[in-house]
Amino acid sequence: TELAPPSTEIITLTRHVLAEQIHLGPAASGDLTLLLNAIQLTSKFIATNVRRARLINLVGLAGDTNVQGEEQKKLDVLSNDIMVNALRASGKTAVLVSEELDEAIIIEDRYKGKYCVVFDPLDGSSNIDAGVNIGTIFGIYQIRPDSQGTIADVLRPGSEMVAAGYTMYGSSANLVLSTGNGVNGYTLDTALGEFVLTHPDIKIPPRGKIYSFNEGNSLYFHPPTVNYLNSVKFPPAGKTPYSARYIGSMVADVHRTLLYGGIFGYPDDKKSKQGKLRLLYEAFPMAFLTEQAGGIATTGTKRILDIVPTKVHERTGIYLGSKDDVQEVIKFYEAEA
Ligand code: AHG
Ligand code: MN
Ligand code: MN
Ligand code: MN
Q1: Is the confidence metric ipTM above 0.90 for this complex?
Q2: Which residues are placed with Cβ below 5 angstroms of ligand 4, an ion?
Q3: What residues does the Fructose-1-6-bisphosphatase class 1 C-terminal domain cover (predicted)?
Q4: Of the residues 139, 157, 180, 219, which has the fewest C-beta atoms closer than 10 A?
Q5: Residue of the nearest CA to atom 3 in ligand 1?
Q6: Cβ–Cβ < 8 Å for 184, 199
Q7: Who wins on pLDDT, 30 or 95?
Q8: Atom 14, ligand 1: which residue's CA is nearest?
Q9: Ligand 3 centre distance from Cα of residue 283 (Å)
């Protein structure tokens, strides 16, 4: 028998976002659609450079240190520049916050729009030179009604974000996005140059079989973390211990957690007293996606999306993933209290 010809019903990211806009009716201005177009372009641009990094001398250090005291890689700096340029040029942004910039950028009037974008241009820097999965993370706020765009527009709880997502540069480039109405995943078709809908309506399984922590920090972990990890490694008789998977790129570890279930954690500990991951452009977008996919994101004692940031590079401890798994961590914190 003959195979059916390929489908002509390709749903691209642009088409999907446009459809959502049409669904919202004439009141929707289309500005978010245009902003998301700018963001997907930056992901394609970064993906191209990631693929070629080894060939075009884009591996290794840039020579500077960022405000968090991390040595910047060439790809950190390039990805940051790509995003700042495209987001400013989109005419849809008012405030930009990047991991790689000390201060927020307030966009000049000529280009000013009504959205604020907080982003980690290149997540998983330590994995770049080994060719292991890395990514880009972003969150979007709309400026408050009375505002011209100030730092106060981004020092707001993650629950007020209007959209969040990430792109993972792995065996393929995958963009995962939520505009507050579930989570969808798209895969870059390099021949078309388009992100194509491949993972509609992602839902995290309510329970998984994988835990994902940097256990090299065990010496510093607080008791609830230690007790939780022991519970998955040494379960009561008859239950199977969890598998360990830890890539060290939040984007990749969260992506696997969304698809397979389980738990990802980077808790605060005796050494990293505020945690390591950054609230605005790592924890908030990933917590937003996790909740939209039916999971939970917590510090152990508090919902991540309820935290009110006081500075743009603020850090937090985080656990996220399958509902039932994360609930168990929370129980260990309650027992300690
Ligand atoms: P970034 O590369 O953007 O600075 O982020 C690194 C983060 C995150 O990707 C990952 O989850 C975590 O740091 C890994 O930290 P460890 O190397 O301490 O495990
Ligand atoms: Mn970094
Ligand atoms: Mn990061
Ligand atoms: Mn980064």
Answers
A1: yes
A2: 99, 120, 122-123
A3: 204-333
A4: 219
A5: 123
A6: yes
A7: 95
A8: 248
A9: 9
Q: Which ligand 1 atom is the nearest neighbour of the CA of 70?
A: 4
Q: Hunting for tokens 């765009």 — which residue is that?
A: 149
Cβ atoms 158, 320 nearer than 8 A:
no
Give the tens place of pLDDT for each residue, 261-273: 999 999 999 999 9
The set of protein residues with a Cβ atom below 6 angstroms from ligand 1 is 70, 99, 120, 123-126, 214, 248-250, 266, 276
Task: Answer with the residue of higher pLDDT: 9 or 226.
Answer: 226
From ligand 4's centre to the CA of 266, what distance in Å?
15
Ligand 2 mean position to 99 CA, how many Å?
7
Phi first, then psi, for residue 257 (nearest 5°) are -65, -40
